[in-house]
Amino acid sequence: MRKFLLLLFTLAVSLGCTYATPKVPKKKVQRKKTALVNVKTKAKDDANVSNPNLPVIIQEDRYGCYYADTASCNEFSTAGMVNWAGERKKLYDKNADTVKKCLQALKPQTSVVPAKNAVAFRKAMDNEIRSWRKLEALMRDFGNISIEAQYVLNDGTIWLVVRAGMHSDLSYTRFACLQEDLNTLSGVLVKAAKEDKGLLLDTLYAQMQLLRPVVKAQLLKKKWKYTMAEARKEAQRLNYSCSVSTVKKVMGKWLEARKTVGGLLAEPYRTAYNLHTTTTVHSFIELFMDIDQ
């Protein structure tokens, strides 16, 4: 989303300026090149990742490493930027789905998953996928409602772009995490980047709470010409649906599912897998910080 915000700022200065991303240079962390290893060529082609050296981009900010989509948008209109982000989301969703199928079909080496853990590992992987679906749906709903609240308070078609960027970034995060998982579970030995910041869940939830200011019924009544009853109902939805407390519960189940999978792996694959979890949570922090900016 920072790409879009920078683009609009650049346009305000000069329509002739060239758009570049990201807004502030970040330290890139070269954890590894991400390639689909030991999977069928057709699966890679279906995912539009036929290049086996396709990298997962990881950047580092004050809250640690996170997955970063650094693709550049050359559109200048609101509609163009929204459509561009929508197409990126479709691509990442497609790639993530293909990588997920590769993971489901994968039979890890005993050096990665000890033979005694094989059955439990498969069940744990399936549970992680189910848990993510619930978390993803909730995070998307939370983002939508947060942006609706911001629009009520601040107006501006920029929020259409922010919303599209949020969904694209969330899709990229899952794609990147799964692709790193696939490499790890395929037995690719990698030197994990040092990550000593932890999950930073308190930081994530605090940031999410900042995106949920109280929207008063009176403002909605005036802005949208609602009846008072309609305004109260809408205020109730904007203020209380998809609460941070609900996110905490669903997030907890997904983190537990990831922990279970990691616990069944041998080292150093366990450490690498758990690092993907941490990087994903840090990506959530960056995602919601972008909305607040």
UniProtKB/TrEMBL annotation:
PROSITE patterns: PROKAR_LIPOPROTEIN. Residues 1-20 form the signal peptide. Keywords: Signal. It comes from the Bacteria. This is Lipoprotein.
